[in-house]
Design goal:
elongated; mainly alpha
C-alpha cells in the first residue's frame, strides 16, 4: 500500500516558510512595545531626529547623507519603517495582554464564586451555632431558677401548709 493511501496515518501539511516560536516572538514584541511606549524612548527619538535634521541642514552638501533639499527622504523612510513595524508589534502585544487579562478574569471569577460559597456556608454555620446556643441553659438562667431565697421561701410555705394540715388532721382525730 502506498503512503498516500494509508488512512491510519494522518496527513501532515508540508510547511514551507519560516518557523518560529509564537511565545518567544510574542515576548519579543511585548518588550518592543514596552520600550516604544516610554517617555524615555520619545525623548531619545526626538533628540535623534533633531540631530539628524540639524546635521543635514547645517553641514555642507558633501557631508549630508539626507539633504534638506530632497525633503529628508531618508528620515521619512526610517520613521515610516519604524511605524510600520511598531504598529503590528504593539497590536500583537495588546492581543497577548488581552488573552492574559481574559484568563485572569476567569480565575478571579472562579475565586469569587468559591469565596461566595464559603461565605454562605460560614453564614449558615454561624446561624446554626446561634440557634444551638439559644437552647443552652446559661448560668444566669440557672441562678434565676435555683435562687436560694426563692427555694427557701417555697420550702417555708410548704412547711407551713403541712403544719396546718397536720394540725387539722390532729383536730379531726381528737373529735
Amino acid at each position: 500500500m502506498k503512503r498516500k493511501e494509508d488512512l491510519a496515518v494522518p496527513r501532515q501539511r508540508r510547511r514551507i516558510g519560516v518557523h518560529y516560536d509564537n511565545d518567544a516572538f510574542g515576548q519579543f514584541s511585548e518588550s518592543i512595545a514596552r520600550t516604544l511606549g516610554t517617555a524615555r524612548f520619545l525623548v531619545w527619538q526626538s533628540f535623534l531626529i533633531i540631530v539628524w535634521i540639524i546635521y543635514n541642514f547645517v553641514l555642507p552638501d558633501s557631508w549630508q547623507f539626507d539633504p534638506w533639499g530632497r525633503g529628508l527622504v531618508l528620515l521619512t523612510l526610517v520613521l515610516s519603517l519604524q511605524a510600520s513595524y511598531a504598529a503590528p508589534l504593539i497590536l500583537l502585544s495588546q492581543n497577548r495582554q488581552e488573552g492574559r487579562d481574559r484568563t485572569q478574569a476567569e480565575v478571579d471569577r472562579r475565586v469569587a464564586e468559591r469565596t461566595q460559597a464559603d461565605t454562605e456556608f460560614l453564614a449558615r454555620e454561624i446561624a446554626s451555632v446561634r440557634v444551638s446556643l439559644s437552647d443552652i441553659v446559661t448560668t444566669e438562667d440557672l441562678r434565676d431558677h435555683l435562687d436560694a431565697e426563692a427555694i427557701t421561701q417555697a420550702i417555708t410555705r410548704l412547711t407551713d401548709v403541712v403544719e396546718q394540715l397536720s394540725t387539722r388532721i390532729d383536730g379531726l382525730e381528737k373529735r
